[in-house]
Amino acid sequence: MVVLPVLVAVILVFTGPPHRGTGTPMLVDLATGSGLNYALFAVSVISQLLLLIVVALFAGDPVASEASWGSLRYLLLRPVPRGQLLRVKLTVGLLLSGVAALALVLAAGLSGWLAFGGGGLTTPLGASLGTGESLRIFLLTSAYVTSQQLVVAALAFLLSTVTDAPLGAVGGAVLLMIVSSVLDAITSLGVFRYGLPNHYALLVRPAVLAAADRPDGARARPAGAVDGGAARAGVAALRPQGHPVLSPTLTT
Prior knowledge:
Blueprint: H1 3-15, H2 27-30, H3 35-69, H4 71-76, H5 82-116, H6 131-147, H7 150-160, H8 166-184, H9 204-213, H10 224-236
Helix pairs in contact: 1-3, 1-5, 3-5, 3-6, 3-7, 3-8, 7-8, 7-10
């Protein structure tokens, strides 16, 4: 989470942004314009895969790994309510995911400032924003992108409660998000795409800079509250028989 933003910044310093010719500039085309431009680009891109995998690992591994080791059975021999156990493990997983997201944001901001200097954001139309406004946009965008990972945590934690294989829980959540991305690219699905978990995840990247170019100053609306409901569903959605946590009877 820290090395990759630094590595990408070093590459852009020596190679520069890609030459795309004419057309509307994308975030990668504006990445070298200022430190905040690079930070916005790095957070948006790296969160699509690397942060997704890290969040799935933190949320999907705790329950399934202890179940596979057998230590979960000994833990439940003590009078610990299953609901409390799940809440604590989910809370720890979300906290670790938050630390990883914060590390990504700080690393992207610091490496962008060192590589491309200070200054505000440069919009696709060539306008330059003030430093204060640019910093606010960057922080809001980072919060929005990070909040999209809540649905990944919900899926990974849900799968970890129905399997004893940690790789199955983590990989299953990542695979579901990949399938969702593929389905979202099929425009013929129409309004059904709006219900996909990551349909709005990528809209913030062009929307934020485009909104800065509009005179009304409209901004993208975060959707973290929607994903928060999905995270809560991961705790109590399924209760299959035979799982060492969710089954009424403890197998020995």
